[in-house]
Structures are given as structure tokens and as C-alpha cells.
């Protein structure tokens, strides 16, 4: 095989490799689909609850549906378990036991509806009422801090 024949053979191989590379890029691009951007969920809100021997207080007691972090202060002499009783049994949320003079947290994703907030079976505190409205707006375009 002469020099000319070797050069021609290498040129064909280089061209074939380049064509194969371009074809693979083209095939990969054809498989993509456009997906609509789903808005981010609403940012979680912080709600506080106080339980004493007489009553349960929650603040705020009206807000939109979505993720909620409830900080509970047990100012009674007995352990309590914050419980949210929703419009449907599947909406019910129950927290952990909180010792007297203790603080606890309850995280929940609440649906729209009216809830009773009580301190559990072992407490005689009067329950609070909570109204959860329509879902809060998306947190898109908001800076979320840790």
C-alpha cells in the first residue's frame, strides 16, 4: 500500500468518525421533550401553640393550606400530645409527647378545612379552632433561607 492509499484510507475513517459523532448528537437532541415548569410549593410557615391546664391556644389560627411547622409550648403540669383533627380522618395529625414545661415541634402538610387542635387524651385543656384556607401561593421567585 502506497502513501496515497494510506492517506485516502485515513481520510475516510476520520470522515466516518466525524459523521458518527454528529449523528449521535442529533439523535440525543431528538429524544428531549419540553416539560412545563411546575411551580414550587408554598414556603412553610411557622405557627406557635401554647398548652396550659385550661386551654390550647394557636397563633395564627387562620392561614392557607400547605406545609406548617408548629412549635408547641407545654405550660401545663401534665404531658401533652398536640393533635389536629381535620375535616377527614386522613387529615388528622398527631405529634409526640411533650413533657411538662417542655417544647415540641409538629410538622404537617395541612389541607383546606377546619381543624380542632387539642392536647391529647390525657389533657383537660379546651381545644382551639384552626381554619386552613386555600393553598398559599407558590414560593417561586422567593429567596428561601435555611
Report on the architecture of this protein.
With 146 residues, this protein is an alpha+beta fold. It folds into two domains: 1-31; 45-135, Cupredoxins -  blue copper proteins (Immunoglobulin-like, Sandwich), CATH 2.60.40.420. The chain contains one helix and eight strands, in the order αββββββββ. Strands 1, 2, 3, 4, 5, 6, 7 and 8 form an eight-stranded mixed beta sheet that branches. Strand 1 and strand 2 (56-59) form a beta hairpin.
Summary, kept brief:
By secondary structure, the chain is of the alpha+beta class. It is built from 1 helix and 8 strands.
Overall pLDDT level: 83
Main sheet characteristics: 8 strands, mixed
So, the CATH homologous superfamily of the largest domain?
Answer: Cupredoxins -  blue copper proteins
List the domain count as a whole number: 2
H/E series, N to C?
HEEEEEEEE
> Nearest-angstrom radius of gyration?
30 Å
Structural class: alpha+beta
CATH architecture of the largest domain: Sandwich
Shape estimate: elongated
Q: Roughly what fraction of the amino acids lie in strands? A: 25-35%
User: Which consecutive residue ranges, at least 5 long each, have pLDDT under 50?
Assistant: none
List how many beta strands DSSP finds: 8
- Using the coordinates shown, work out and report the CATH topology of the largest domain: Immunoglobulin-like
Instruction: Indicate the percent of residues in helices.
Output: 10-25%
N-C termini distance: 70 Å
Assigned CATH class of the largest domain: Mainly Beta
Helical segment count: 1
